[in-house]
Amino acid sequence: MRNIWIVARKDLRGYFTSPIAYLVMAIFSAIMGYMFFSLLNLYVLQSMQFEQLRYGKGPSFNDSLIRPIFGNMNVVLLFIVPFITMRLFAEEKKNNTIELLFTAPIKMSQIVLGKYLSALLFVLVLLLLTIPYPIALSVAANPDWGVIAMCYLGTILMIGTYIAVGVLCSSITENQIVAGALTFGTILFFWIIKWASYNASPFWSDLLSYLSIVDHFEDFSRGIFNTRDIVFFASSIGLWLFLTYKTLESYSWRS
Fold first, then answer.
1. pTM of the model
2. pLDDT tens across 125-163, in order?
3. 41 lies in which domain range?
4. Which end of the chain is less congested by CB atoms within 10 angstroms, N or C?
5. What crossing angle do the helices spanning 19-53 and 108-128 adopt, rounded to 10°?
6. 127-160 in b/e burial notation, b at 16+ Cβ within 10 A?
């Protein structure tokens, strides 16, 4: 565990010693802040209209505000994560420093986990920037903290999968732009894969739906803890990291 943390700390420090980290944090905060206040304003307007027209109790707080906020957050991170992960191994290859990693007294698995952990910790910092949103809501309303907690858990698991894909793509090439493009394309594929299930046979429809990342986030967004979704994300992360390990192992034999 100590070796994993050494690798993670080195890479995490690398993020914050360059302006890229602060630029990403600023962009993420600006976009999420705009989305939060836009959705909040829309919710307030809809609630006032329902009250004036006496249509009933008004829009659902969770469906109209909480779920859209986290849904939009996952879309924003879909674009941001490739920029975070593209440098992990690609930069090491380009600078010819990856051989130093391979010859260091650290296992290949520890290198992979350390790189993964550094990117995950950076994204968790981004998520911490969104904590003021539910706190602000609690001042004026009574949000369901169970739903919010499940949304954060689902987001962390989904982003963990994004990052695992990015780690693999970064290990394939020494070109950071290519690594970022591969990461974005792969994640996007598993976002839209369910579209193909609508015209498929029952077997393929169920399979494609199961592979859909978005489908496995749905229960979390409703405040439901489903072990099926936990297993999916955990196994996905494990698979992508295992493929990274085998890719780097093959690279070390050739170099």
1. 0.89
2. 999 999 988 888 887 677 778 888 999 999 999 999 999
3. 2-254
4. N
5. 50
6. beebeebbeebeeeeebeeebbebbbebbbbbbb
